[in-house]
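Input (structure):
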């Protein structure tokens, strides 16, 4: 696949994911690349606390791509990788401790026993 076609495929997937997330994040939209220094590996905006990286290709992206979003130390942003391969369902990848913290706060459950494994 050519580079331009591959980029279009990725941008289309970013728009698709933003649309899917509208019930949770009504103002979610694709982050434009006019200022790449602002993107920092985050593909969607208005999805706080999630810092979403979308990857679309022939196969699922390696889960190590979750490291792409450049999140400052001490930030409350939670990295989330959403990936899809050809003829497959999209998959969301998140660190387990972030998932526990986010899902508990999202569900209104407080539990101080959840330990973060984030680098300090």
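Output (sequence):
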């Amino acid at each position: 696949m050519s580079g331009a076609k591959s980029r279009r495929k990725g941008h289309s997937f970013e728009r698709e994911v933003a649309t899917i997330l509208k019930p949770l994040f009504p103002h979610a939209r694709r982050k434009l690349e006019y200022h790449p220094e602002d993107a920092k590996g985050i593909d969607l905006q208005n999805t706080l606390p999630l810092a979403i990286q979308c990857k679309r290709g022939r196969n699922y992206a390696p889960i190590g791509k979750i490291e792409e979003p450049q999140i400052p130390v001490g930030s409350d942003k939670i990295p989330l990788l959403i990936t899809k391969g050809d003829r497959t369902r999209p998959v969301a990848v998140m660190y387990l401790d972030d998932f526990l913290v986010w899902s508990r706060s999202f569900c209104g459950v407080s539990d101080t026993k959840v330990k973060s494994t984030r680098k300090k």
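Notes: The chain has a mean pLDDT of 86. The first strand starts at residue 29 and ends at 30.
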